[in-house]
Design a protein that fits this description.
By secondary structure, the protein is an all-alpha fold. Helix content is 85%, strand content 0%. Keywords: Signal.
C-alpha cells in the first residue's frame, strides 16, 4: 500500500472530527431555544418600536446576550425578574436572594453590552 493510501483513512477521520467539533461549537453558541429568542425579540420590539430597524437591533441584541450568558443562567435571571414582582414573602425571597441577584446582574451586563453593539 502506498503512502497516499495509508493517509486517506487518517485524513477522513480528521475531517469527521473537525466537522463534529464545528457542530458542537455551533450548538454551544446557539443553545437558546427559538421560543426564548422570539420572546426576547418580541419584548424588545415592544419597548423599542415595532419597526424593521427594531427587529434587526433586537435580533442582534439577543444574539449578543446569548453569546455572553449561558441559557440556564438566562432562565434563572428571567425567573428572578418575574418572581421579584410578586408581592409578599415569595417575592421577597427572589428580591433578596444572592443567586438571583447575581444572575440578574449578569443578564443586565449582557444587555448593556448588546445595547452598545446593536443600538
Amino acid at each position: 500500500m502506498s503512502f497516499a493510501g495509508q493517509l486517506r483513512p487518517i485524513v477522513a477521520a480528521l475531517a469527521v472530527l473537525t466537522a463534529t467539533a464545528c457542530v458542537a461549537r455551533a450548538e454551544e453558541a446557539n443553545d437558546y431555544p427559538t421560543s426564548a429568542r422570539a420572546e426576547y425579540v418580541y419584548g424588545c420590539m415592544k419597548a423599542n418600536g415595532e419597526t424593521r430597524q427594531a427587529i434587526e437591533q433586537c435580533s442582534c441584541s439577543i444574539d449578543v446576550v446569548a453569546s455572553i450568558v449561558p441559557y440556564e443562567r438566562y432562565v434563572t435571571a428571567e425567573t428572578a425578574l418575574s418572581m421579584s414582582q410578586v408581592r409578599g414573602n415569595l417575592g421577597v425571597q427572589f428580591r433578596t436572594s444572592e443567586q438571583a441577584n447575581s444572575a440578574v446582574n449578569d443578564l443586565r451586563r449582557a444587555q448593556a453590552e448588546a445595547e452598545v453593539r446593536c443600538f
